[in-house]
Design goal:
seven-stranded mixed sheet, globular, Rossmann fold
Amino acid sequence: MLLISGSTRAASTSSALCRTAEFCAPAGVTVECYADVAVLPHFDPDDDHDPLPPGVAALRSAIASADAVLFCTPEYAGTLPGSFKNLLDWTVGGTELTAKPVAWVKVAADERRGEGAHATLATVLGYVQARVVEDACRHVPIARDTVGADGVIADSTTRSQIAATIEAVLDADPATFRDIGRVDSIE
């Protein structure tokens, strides 16, 4: 399973969830964290062809290799942070997310935060025809003071919630996926 943090902040709670998932994933589940959102070049449709920029090729390869993808992104100014939207823009020209089981987690302490980011994420995931596992889209609140100096969350309750989220994505019955549907682009 691939976990993608949408944050560039060094002490991000979104990235802490991704790092922690490596330690609390269910037995037999390999978790890879993609935290290189800041190294991707600015999206340019003229560069969306082979050979892809190295960072983009690595991102698409990681997505293609994963059985499922779990996104963890903060909300910034009511929507996705620009660097994370840039990452998503680089996925549109490929088919790596097509029919791939995906879900998202919001970690904001205030459960009312993050809805704008997730609505935008749902739009992009629909455009690339990913399969959203609704039951795995969750709120796992993470307080900054629960993240250790190593960037990992030690709290057993939070770790259990992360493990349950991973299981929900991987164990989902394909019949329950929400097919958001492709939205035709306007040029």
